[in-house]
Amino acid sequence: MRPVNLIPPEDRRGETAPLRTGALVYLVVGACVAVLVGVTAMVLMGNKIADRKADVAQLESEDAAATAKAQQLAPYVQFKVLADQRVETVKSLADSRFDWERVMRELSLVLPDDVWLIDLTATAAPGLTVEGASGGAGSLREEAPGPALQLTGCATGQEALAGFVTDVKDIDGVTRVGMPSSEIAADGGAGTGSNADCRTRAFITKFEMVVTFDAAPVPVTSAEGEVAAPVEEPAPESEESSEEG
Helix, strand or coil for residue 207? Predict the structure, then answer.
């Protein structure tokens, strides 16, 4: 026969006693696991922070070395920049040079006795202004990209003015000669004789002229327009001085 244990399970002792389990055991095990995971994470994070600090220290050391080297090479860099600036300045001056002296000399040679000037303005580029210069022929001057002369004067008639225009075109470098205005006094010559109106006779014609040199290099000008300079009216050679020569 097979033996049967008639003792209730809760009263049994020994190997036949049932195992007792509960929620507390699982809570304890879970807490231990959580503590273990936290400690492991802290250790890993600490190791990563230590590695990052080491990298930062190395980068700071390399940056300090590069800064020191750059400071040692700074004088050479400054010298190179200064040399480049001076080269560009020389190139700019060479490209923007314009022989105003030659132009004035040739203008004085072609200026006839029956034409005289009351105002002459020379500018190296459009947009530049000269203190005391007249504002005539401004639109034609703005259309010229390079150096130009703005002339205001009088001639003893349209034929004399036409001959002067032809002679001005023969000046070396002249590309265009514009004539914004050419007129005789409306009152038939009752002028005052001042520079504002040189038409003291009925046949005298007052004109405005723009002589451009479009083929000349356009100069580099500052914001204040320092390239522009007033040019004095050229004095034509008298017949007596030419005869003495």
Answer: strand
